[in-house]
């Protein structure tokens, strides 16, 4: 057979020589799905070690069309369909990475990644540690996640807590098209395995911004909207909701800061704690169920680090602790602008004057 | 030692489904047998090397079992009685090929060139596998059953995409063939025509569960057939047969013929691990019966009968084995040197801020303990 991939030079280890992060074309309106598609195309063009595979990603271009056109452009040896077996997709990606490739694999839907859980948690996450850094596994696992698209059972799970709880994995999720491009390019260049969570309901959101890998690093949170009264910490699909809520809150006299985590693991303590210390109040928003959810970790960390700056307990606005509801009921599950505003309202605003009277201290 | 790849692959193809008897080249009495012309008998120097490594491997294995009894190893899964598979596989692979072993396969890993103390790192209670997988092209010994089969298929497929002449061989147990990953791996290997060899050491048991409770398949080798993977059933106590079968599968893969599934019939003579009590689930008579089919004794008989092995060489080989055992004993006589700070070093390519904080806290704790 013909070799289409350049053999890696003798003596080099896979994962130690990331290809260049190209800067893409001038700004035009692009959807998140489109930005992800461009990121994959640019990564495939920039680095011959990159391969893209999964269920229906070849001829069809993926059920969400994120890999549209890639098989035709890069050929069946670099972009290909696999048989139906999620554990095998991750397991073989591990073997390919051991042999110098950079696999970017797709799990068709969040809940259908569960068969791969053992490969992800026992091997993908731990191989580097088990081999004292000798075997790096620069694998990217793309997972369309979350609801809000009228999906039926098994198609709308938010599975971030499972992955974020696993040492050795990076877990990232973009909120905008331009950041989707940036984060995916950064994930593909990252020497660590990355679980890349794509918020389904933002796939078709448009943005006009240059697509570039430059900007905030893969492990940094960003402030999406500056404010002085309260910090809303969120990520992925609910960043847009939080920004809407911030607009609405402005009308009620609250100046809301919105922090988009981008990286769920590792957690950017510095950026988030700085914001919360400044505003003195925090709200964590995500659509995953709340109990033992990712927001619990965020609230606990911020309490540990910012306690003396807090004017109120950190509250969470999350999905309900129920299996993801059917299309006609999902609006009751998902965090809404109203729920965010209600939660902001509960952040002990009225207590302030009394407390100031009692202590005679001013506010920072 | 090379065999004509095409002729052999045609023959393997005829073996769908596998024949009803295990193929062998040397029987339990050391007599040459006819493997239906399917397997090429290894040349004399290969037989002598198989013997030498089996003597060394068995000695290493009994030494490790003893070290586990003395508490020097946390646990040890012995491969006593399975040396024909352990050594046959390791020697049949070429320099550039990859081995994906399990916890059971310390002797195969040793035979591939990894140092004895390194092989036993995990069993000794280290947090890492002990060796650099790239040095001898040996993946870390794998504990989650059958998961390594997928790694082998992936590595082999990548080799093919890159145009490299590399074959990956994965070792599996009979019990592991019931795991989903075995089936996913066979299926992917078949579809991708990956240069991979599945070698199942059917040693009769998965901890306490006998094969009869593991599967209704007439032979494990049948499992390859459903995935379009040519399959062989070989006498797993016949080192010459295992060696020849693996060689033939490797040549086939190299020639673009894709994957092969080999079931090697053998027996786990010792307990599952040093922590297991086999009297709870099997009769000693069964063990005794298998001891008469010992893989090392039969090869030795054969080599002596054919005049290839004399007392002098046998003595030299035994001395070498004692040397290897002594090195393992000495290497493991010292306590493992643990470095708590190392726990944080390789979780990610660079330790995260969170891990650096935790490391600093742990080191502070330790410094305080030392002072008090
Ligand atoms: C996924 C998984 N399930 C269970 C175990 C626990 N376990 C370890 S060894 C073993 C038996 C395996 O038997 P077999 O595959 O025949 O290999 P052998 O030990 O006989 O070499 C079991 C159940 C495991 N390691 N991995
Ligand atoms: Mg077994």
Describe this structure in words.
The complex is a heterodimer of chains A (364) and B (372). With 364 residues, chain A is of the alpha/beta class. Chain A has two domains: 30-208, Rossmann fold (3-Layer(aba) Sandwich); 222-345, Rossmann fold (3-Layer(aba) Sandwich). Chain A contains 13 helices and 14 strands. In chain A, strands 3-2-4-5-7-6-12 form a seven-stranded mixed beta sheet, sandwiched between helices. Chain A has a five-stranded mixed beta sheet with strand order 9-11-10-13-14, sandwiched between helices. In chain A, β13, α10 (294-306) and β14 (315-319) form a beta-alpha-beta unit. The radius of gyration of chain A is 21 Å and the shape is globular. Residues 1-22 and 353-364 of chain A have low confidence and may be disordered. Chain B has 372 residues and is of the alpha/beta class. Chain B has two domains: 11-338, 3-Layer(aba) Sandwich (Rossmann fold); 339-372. In chain B, 47% of the residues lie in helices and 8% in strands. Chain B contains 16 helices and seven strands. In chain B, the strands form two sheets. A five-stranded parallel beta sheet of chain B has the order 1-2-3-7-6, sandwiched between helices. A two-stranded antiparallel ribbon of chain B has the order 4-5. In chain B, α3 runs parallel beside α12 (239-254). Classes of the chains: A alpha/beta (364), B alpha/beta (372). Chains A and B meet through α3, α4 and α5 of A and α8 and α9 of B. Magnesium ion binds at residues 173-175, 203, 205-206 of chain B. Chain B: Pfam families: E1_dh. Chain B: Residues 52-329 form the Dehydrogenase E1 component domain.
Count of distinct structural domains of chain A: 2
Structural class of chain B: alpha/beta
The radius of gyration over CA of chain B amounts to 21 Å
What profile does the largest beta sheet of chain B have? 5 strands, parallel
How would you write the strand order of the largest sheet of chain A? 3-2-4-5-7-6-12
CATH superfamily of the largest domain in chain B: Thiamin diphosphate (ThDP)-binding fold, Pyr/PP domains
Shape of chain A: globular
Going by CATH, the architecture of the largest domain in chain A would be 3-Layer(aba) Sandwich
Uncertain runs of chain B with pLDDT below 50, 5 residues or more? Answer: 1-9
